[in-house]
Amino acid sequence: METLSNETLLEMQRRMLRIRAFDERASKMVKRGHIPGTVHTSIGQEAQVVGATMALRPGDYTTGNHRSHGHPIGMGSPLGPLMAELVGKATGVCKGKGGSLHLADFAVGSLGESGIVGSSIPIAMGAALSASVRGTEQVALAFFGDGAANQGVLYESMNLSGVWNLPVVFLCENNQYALSTPAHTVTSGVIADRAAGFGMPGIRVEDGQDVLAVYDAVSTAVARARAGEGPSLVEVVTYRYNEHSEGLRLGTDYRPVDEREAWLKKDPIQLFREHLQSTGVSPAELDAMEAEVLAEVDEAVAFTDASPYPDPSVAFDDLYTDTEYAA
Amino acid sequence: MTVMSFLGAIGAAQREAMDADERVIIFGEDVEANVYGTTGAGKTRSDKGDFLQMYGRNRIRNTPISEESMVGAAAGAAMTGLRPIVDLSYSSFLYMAMDQFVNQVAKNRYMFGGQASMPVVFRSAMFYGLNTGAHHSDRPYPMFMNVPGLKIIAPSSPTDAKGLLRSAIDSDDPVLTFEACLLWGTKEDVPEEEFWIPLGEARTAREGTDVTVVAISSSVPEAVAAAEALAASEGVSVEVIDPRTLVPLDRDAILRSVHKTGRLVVAEPAHRTCGAAAEISAHVVEEAFGVLKAPIVRVTAPDMQIPFSTALEKQMYPTRHTIEAAIRRVLDLPASSEASELAAASAQ
Ligand SMILES: Cc1ncc(C[n+]2csc(CCOP(=O)(O)OP(=O)(O)O)c2C)c(N)n1
Ligand SMILES: [Mg+2]
Question: How far apart are CA B4 and CA A323, in angstroms?
Answer without folding.
Answer: 31
